[in-house]
TrEMBL record:
Chief place where the protein resides: plastid
Protein encoded by which gene: ATS1
Family: Belongs to the GPAT/DAPAT family.
Name of protein: Glycerol-3-phosphate acyltransferase, chloroplastic
UniProt pathway: Lipid metabolism; Phospholipid metabolism; CDP-diacylglycerol biosynthesis; CDP-diacylglycerol from sn-glycerol 3-phosphate: step 1/3
Record organism: Salvia divinorum
Length: 459
């Protein structure tokens, strides 16, 4: 999201936007790229035990709890057997909750029952039903032999969490720590997205640089990942592709997140499992003129929280300087990283430099729009329709880019800021093109370039 630092905030020392081609500024950039001293390998072996599927949704939900809570989870109701001599079939009672559901019909019945009882607003009930069907269709397309079980198990828990939050809404603070207990929302997000990823057609670019980043974090240094933004599934995709080689990054990454993912009932359970710095994007700052002042004050609090985090050191933060998700070109229908806002890049850079702790800014490219593509145009209203697909994804990173090496070669400070933003954006576009060739062009590892080495460490 775009960060706009008000003039009153001190830096602590302690859509349709036209797409910009990757070659747009190549002539300006090439002379700098050759002169930049960009460098990159250790992996943390801490494994994360992520659940995939279980035949009983309640058993799976209990596994996600650090301890069982009778106030949140009702006891399972055992099947009731008919004593009729003419009918010896097992007769199950109607499901009392989503976790008691034994079939698709049961899940949809609970949604309908809660809506009719007035405990679930009709628009949210409709969204939950649509989410179920779209998720089911996507997982079935994966061809997994237990696709039906995966869908029922995962969706039962997701619908249960959505419903629970509707009953008792969770309020996010400016800096939100991922909730791992008593319910593990992080693992829920991983478990939900995993069946949507075609790992055979997914790629990680420059794994050695992720290892380099982990070393810098171990040394107490800060790392910023300047990235494009494609879908609500971005955090899970990053974590899934890094979990086997860089689990520390996967679980400790802090995301600068817009208000929509912390207010939309269908997004909130997944957001609760991530470390978030919550901000209001420039794109939605003026949606309601009455809320502009409130949003600015909230952003000021989040910026102060970010400054304190960076001051403590050993933090890794992901931010999308475009201010929102990438969208396809309205004419060509081609996907491309949305252009960066140079002021957002510079604001983030200054926060890092004023932290009093060594910091590094890396360009990171994401390709996962097929999993959960955004609406074709930016929507003001909360409650967008969720399209879901099974597809290959990609994540890549290139060496950190040093702003001062660029600025020292130029006389105009404003030109240095612009050039720095262009360099980061150009790197992301070039990495994105490599991922695109590998995944959509079916070139696989052959798509690797001189600056992007593709691997599949999960296989």
């Amino acid at each position: 999201m775009i960060l706009s630092i008000p003039s009153t905030v001190k830096l602590y020392a302690c859509s349709t936007t036209p797409r910009v081609s990757a070659s747009h500024s190549s002539s300006r950039i090439s002379c700098f790229v050759r002169s930049l001293d960009c460098a990159g390998a250790r992996r943390l072996s801490r494994s994360s035990c992520l659940l995939f599927c279980a035949s009983n949704p309640r058993d799976t939900a209990d596994m996600l709890y650090e301890r069982k809570s009778s106030s949140n989870v009702a006891p399972a109701t055992p099947p009731v057997s008919s004593s009729s001599a003419s009918d010896h079939r097992d007769v199950s009672p109607p499901p009392r909750s989503f976790l008691d559901a034994r079939s698709e019909q049961d899940l949809l019945m609970v949604i309908q029952k809660e809506a009719e009882a007035g405990r679930l607003p009709n628009n949210i009930a409709q969204g939950m039903t649509e989410l179920y069907h779209n998720y089911r269709d996507a997982v079935l397309r994966s061809g997994h032999p237990k696709a039906d079980e995966i869908v029922r198990s995962n969706m039962a828990i997701v619908l249960d969490r959505i419903f629970s939050d509707v009953q008792d809404p969770f309020q996010f603070s400016p800096y939100h720590n991922a909730i791992r207990e008593p319910f593990d929302y992080y693992t829920l997000g991983q478990k939900y997205i995993r069946p949507l990823v075609d790992f055979r057609n997914s790629y990680l670019g420059n794994n050695s640089i992720f290892n380099e980043i982990e070393k810098k974090l171990e040394q107490g240094e800060n790392v910023i990942l300047m990235s494009n933004h494609q879908s609500e599934a971005d955090p899970a995709v990053i974590a899934l592709l890094l979990e086997s080689t860089s689990s520390f990054i996967a679980e400790n990454l802090i995301y600068v997140a817009g208000d929509r993912v912390i207010t939309d009932p269908l997004s909130k359970p997944f957001s609760m499992g991530r470390n978030l710095l919550c901000v209001y994007s420039k794109k939605h700052m003026s949606d309601d003129p009455k809320l502009i002042d409130m949003k600015r004050r909230a952003n000021t609090k989040s910026l102060k929280e970010m400054a304190l985090l960076l001051r403590a050191g050993a933090k890794i933060i992901w931010i999308a300087p475009s201010g929102g998700r990438d969208r396809p070109d309205p004419v060509t229908k081609e996907w491309h990283p949305a252009p960066f806002d140079s002021s957002s890049v510079d604001n983030m850079r200054r926060l890092v430099e004023h932290a009093g702790v060594p910091g590094h800014i890396y360009p990171l490219a994401l390709m996962c729009h097929e999993i959960m593509p955004p609406p074709l145009e930016v929507e003001k209203e909360i409650g967008e329709r969720r399209e879901i697909s099974f597809h290959g994804v990609g994540v890549s990173v290139e060496p950190a880019i040093d702003y001062h090496k660029i600025d020292s070669a130029l006389d105009d400070p404003d030109e240095g800021k612009s050039m720095y933003s262009e360099l980061l954006y150009s790197s992301i576009c070039q990495q994105y093109d490599v991922l695109k060739s590998a995944i959509y062009g079916k070139q696989g590892f052959k798509a690797s370039s001189s600056s992007v080495f593709l691997t599949q460490p999960w296989l």
